[in-house]
Amino acid sequence: MFTGIIESLGTVVSLEKSGTNISFWIASPISVELKIDQSVSHEGVCLTVDALADGRHRVTAIEETLTKTNLGSWQSGTIVNLERCMVMNGRLDGHIVQGHVDCTATCIHKLEKEGSWEFTFQIPPAFAHLIIEKGSVAVNGTSLTCFNVGNDRFTVAIIPYTYTHTSIRQIAAGSVVNIEFDILGKYIERMLRRS
Prior knowledge:
This protein is mainly beta. It has three helices and twelve strands.
């Protein structure tokens, strides 16, 4: 479980294909602190560390993950958001993020304002009921508040700190991102449907 507050940026340094799987070697400031079998959010995707070497760590994505996320587009040099799992005795600064991507979305508009940025994302209409005005959403693992919510889109505003310290600065119109909707809303929606 994560909070959506990005801890570090990592860089994909190499990829290894094995059957339908792809393993990614990531270099980051936190790689030396990781342990094998540890869960780490990479661009909002919970992946297990399976190897460590020379200030780098390796994670492997299976076909299901590659199909449902944007990991299949990663290449050497890709910058990724990293977050280790939350510590249960601390503050929850973002919101509850599982690292289980619900869908991908496409950036349809990026607006640079004086001191902030706005990104509008288009989601599959089948997921529209999972997002609300001023609700929480994880975009590439970053906890954000959405507004201008429509039937197939929403907008987020980015402060300078988030823009500088996360991979969101790489997003442009046409970029595909990983989306995880608020788990509380998903449970409530499921209970209401079953009653």
